[in-house]
Amino acid sequence: MIGWVIFGVIAVVVIGYTIVIYNGLVRLKHAVSQAWSNIDVLLRQRHDELPKLVESCRQYMQFESETLTQVTEARNQADRARREGDVAGVGGAENLMRAGLGKIMATVEAYPELKANESFRQLLDRISGLEDAIADRREFYNAAVNANNVRIEQFPDVLVARALGFEPAELLVFSEEMTADVDVRDLFAAG
Fold it and tell me: How far is CA 20 from CA 11, 156, 184, in A?
């Protein structure tokens, strides 16, 4: 009889501990989803502003269409990857888009009337603010991913994670050259 009581107590403790681990893993999984959702909102906002920026530039920069096309194509790639939940694809497309934006900013120097255009300057300020917000949210997202990935690899959590199909999440990584500050406001401060 005492053996059954001990077995029952051990079973209750193991089941209770498994439930605690499971709930912690679920909380982390949803923290990753929430952090991604925050980035997604900002990416959508920036992607909505980019066609306006490209159109503003197109009016002044007729012969620079290759750069404008690069930004538009990168935007479309990033948008597609974002909708599909392809974090690595978003990172790669964002790298291309930021490179294109950098080319636009360098090219704009040759167009003083564009630099002086109020609506263009407002778009630049808006995009620059979104860039800063994306960088902040990326940091939160990657911290949530790291917490999730560490937890599902730690013992005894790894046993529950594997048994119940918890998968590691993917970090949102931009290339080193793309993480350099692209503060477009500074480019036009002298204008």
Answer: 14, 11, 47
Q: For residues 59 and 61, what is the distance between their CA atoms, to the nearest angstrom? A: 6
Q: What are phi and psi of 40, to 5 degrees?
A: -55, -45
Residue 149: phi and psi, rounded to 5, are -65, -40
pLDDT tens-place string over residues 126-162: 888 888 898 889 999 999 999 999 999 999 999 999 9
Closest CA relative to residue 97, chosen from 55, 50, 129, 164: 50
> Which sign, positive or negative, has the C-alpha torsion 122, 124, 130, 133?
negative
The Cα–Cα gap between 189 and 172 comes to 31
Tell me the pTM.
Answer: 0.71
Q: CB pairs under 8 A, 24+ apart, for 122-126?
A: 123/49, 123/52, 123/53, 123/56, 124/53, 124/184, 124/185, 124/187, 124/188, 125/184, 125/185, 126/49
CATH 3.30.565.10 is right for the domain spanning 2-174: no
Check if the beta carbon of residue 134 is closer than 8 Å to that of residue 45. Answer: no
